[in-house]
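tool=predict chain=A
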Amino acid sequence: MAVKKFELPEIAESVHEAEIGRWLVKEGDYVKKEQVLVEVLTDKVNTELPSPYEGYVRKILVKEGDVVTVGTPLVIITDSPDEPIDEEEGAGQTVHAEEKAEGKKEAVEVAEAEDRGNGRPLAAPAVRRLARQLGIDLSRVKGTGPGGRIRKVDVLAYAEGAEKKEEKPVEAPAEPPREKPPVEKVEVVRREVLEEIVPIRGIRRKIAEHLRLSKDRAVHTLHVDEIDMTEVVALRKKLKPYAQEMGVKLTYLPIIMKALIPALKKHPFLNAVVDDEQGVIILKKYYNFGVAVDTPDGLIVPVIKNVDRKSILEIARELADISQRAREGKLELEELQDATFSITNIGSIGGVIAYPVIDYPRVAIMGTHKIKKTPVVDDNDEIVIRHMMYVSLTFDHRVLDGAEAARFTRDLAYILEHPEVFILESI
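tool=predict ok
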């Protein structure tokens, strides 16, 4: 007989924590080896964790909604349904990250070696974020995790110690010390009979955390422009039958994505990310577009990679596939990473103008809106009907000035108003 613990494995490189989404077993259940035990959420991707053992689920150690770090015990499994269990038993039989994710151990070791080589303390992104929020230099914090890795508890302990050091005895003040005004609390009026409580969990919590970080870091600025899409509308109409023969539904978005390439090449600071820790802007020489997808669980931003190397049909086919799998929760973590520029297509739903939030650390995100027939005065002072579309470009004002944003949207407008330009660029 044996008592075994199953720990949270290292699911992917640079992923050091996960949220417990949904348990698919309950205490007392008999499970087979490789049977799925639990769904966890990492960086907006749901991952199923199979059992490495066959046996009885004796104790579930973490609750749905808990956020746990790699190596945290999740569940205890025993050979017998009535075998005595002790949380210290089976510690030597736990499944570690390197046992559940083949090849990941080497990747983590390489990443840690690079951090050591750069003189950076070992810490997960969430820990670095906490340290920044508290104004703590991680190089002063002693890590108690594996290999000296700094954990959240280490940062909090350091912060508490620093506060105590700063406290100084007060010698007989001339007047009683004034009390600090209490922090104003927002009172939430409750009418429980007519209310439903919805916990902020899963993808919604990840979205909230990421958007808060984006608003805290980037200086959001909005530029709006209008583009005459008449020629693109005509081009799509001609190409649709051919695309259908190839089994592809051709929308406007793949055409816009392809038109973005020459515009971004001319304005490289929009195809970039900011590394605030190093104090640098990284200009990307490749073109991976994060495309916002509306799913039942919230907004997901899968990435179409190497857009400059793909045809409009290839982009359309991949966009349809990755969007569908995003709605089904079947994306791999790699499919959400390494974007260089972001797009959100609001036009398919409606509205006039939106103010998208930057997908930090990227520098810009562009919203495309509904293409509408609009009366326009042409060069001959005649009123004609054209297909017009608004674009809203949110950019980080620390990196770009308004004039550069305006030049970018004007260049994009010219390309879309003369689609032969990017067709020529693609040949």
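The chain has a mean pLDDT of 84. The first strand starts at residue 3 and ends at 7.
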